[in-house]
Amino acid sequence: DTEVTQTPKHLVMGMTNKKSLKCEQHMGHRAMYWYKQKAKKPPELMFVYSYEKLSINESVPSRFSPECPNSSLLNLHLHALQPEDSALYLCASSQPLGEGAVQPQHFGDGTRLSIL
Amino acid sequence: KNEVEQSPQNLTAQEGEFITINCSYSVGISALHWLQQHPGGGIVSLFMLSSGKKKHGRLIATINIQEKHSSLHITASHPRDSAVYICAGRPYYNTDKLIFGTGTRLQVFP
Description:
- The structure holds 2 protein chains of 2 kinds.
- By secondary structure, chain A is mainly β.
- Chain A has no helices and 11 strands.
- Chain B is mostly beta strands.
- In chain B, a hairpin with a 7-residue loop joins strand 9 and strand 10.
């Protein structure tokens, strides 16, 4: 079982819908990440939160809106998505740099998103 | 040219064979990760290493900092090892990021 839990596992939504992806970890990690992965491609970084503050936004369109309400939770709010946004969305967590040696990222199982 | 390159892209093997996947990188990194992803599934972190060699069960990862090269070895391969293996480097210029290789798709046949 993964230590990073993502819900839902699958999501189908229309282009006008509003939905949210959720990610939760209880390992005490203070850095959390959102990645997008298209089929047969490596993950692409979208956002990084460090100590609940957004530290990296990789020029992601505003139709994706991240939120980190506390150190254990990370949300990704979706609105007016396009068909090309269909992908596997992965969440990961780790200890941020400065908390000792570099630590590995722990990944969730992902949410498979389909935009109709 | 990608900052992290992997070879081969695809690999097939018979059960029991020794497997090697290679990873080369062109940027300074503080650590290199080896990740495993089964079809349709999430990613499992296999190793994170900054120097030398690490072993876990039938998996061995090595890194040569001077040559900017890492290898993942699987001994006595098994069909359940079939997955995509991805190396990812954590660059000094931004240690919050991982730069991913394109992955190696491994199929082990019984």
